Amino acid sequence: MVENSDLLGLYIVFILAALGSLFAIMTLNNAIRQVEMNENSKPASSLNIIYMGICATSVLYSFLLLLLSSDKEFNKDMLYWGVCLGVVFFFSSIVKGKICADGIKNSRDTTKVLIYAVFPEFVALLAFVSFFMYYLM
Fold this sequence. Notes:
By secondary structure, the protein is mostly helical. 82% of the residues lie in helices and 0% in strands. The chain is built from five helices and no strands.
């Protein structure tokens, strides 16, 4: 059975990832509004949805972590892992949001923006996989 400190660690991951994604999406919305006001034209809406989806992947990782780990027995350091993973997901989302917002503002090539957004995504994915390597293997 999962103890309260283990659940607290899992909830911390989810909350920090959600806050980071929220800040990233707010940054993207501000960039979209600035472009619309300056140029009186709308950027491609499908690209905006893709960029927002990129910023929300950390929430997906934390939700998967919460679902897959809810019935596992953990050591006492789950609270530590929760804070570490939450901070990684939080800053990863914010950096991805800044990269995508810069791509929207400067009308950069979409492939460059996606390639630059892969690096913070890789850091979040590496933290996610390291958690499972530590606990579930």
